[in-house]
Design brief:
With 146 residues, the chain is α+β, with helices and mostly antiparallel strands. The chain is built from 4 helices and 6 strands, in the order H-H-E-E-H-E-E-H-E-E.
Length: 146
């Protein structure tokens, strides 16, 4: 899938992403870069990025990265759990630039081939435009053969 197809998919399947202005900057197998523009749509009562918007950015980035690799493997991808640590507040655009390690992809494919399922743990960082970490996320996914 190319950037436009992913942007359309996100906006159609997760309407809040469109409302927030989530923007797909790059997508290729195992890699995704998303931008969340700082605007009134993502601010909270303190005029900083709302925690739920940060969570959505990370969750969608993780899902897109997983889809970009395992879509052709005929797997169902489910988010099982996510843990998030909010490191610092932000009044800037936020970014999620996620690259799945090749070793992780190979391990998951081997598990799916052997057992028709896999548990996957993906660390994700949300950063600001200066590269400062705003939030750290650990996403737990479950893959199963369709």
């Amino acid at each position: 899938m190319d950037i436009n197809e992913i942007q359309h998919l996100i906006t159609e399947k997760v309407p809040v992403a469109g409302f927030m202005g989530l923007d797909v900057q790059a997508v290729e197998p195992g890699h995704v870069r998303l931008r969340l523009p700082f605007s009134d749509r993502v601010k909270n009562h303190l005029d900083i990025v709302y925690a739920g918007a940060m969570f959505a950015l990370a969750e969608i980035a993780g899902g897109v990265a997983m889809l970009s690799v395992f879509e052709d493997d005929e797997c169902t991808i489910l988010a099982r759990r996510m843990e998030i640590d909010y490191v610092r507040p932000s009044r800037r655009d936020l970014w999620c630039d996620l690259q799945l390690p090749e070793t992780l992809v190979a391990e998951v494919r081997a598990s799916v081939a052997a057992e028709s399922k896999a548990d996957v743990i993906v660390p994700i960082e949300v950063t600001d435009e200066r590269g400062r970490v705003i939030a750290r996320v650990v996403a737990f996914y479950y893959l199963r053969k369709k």
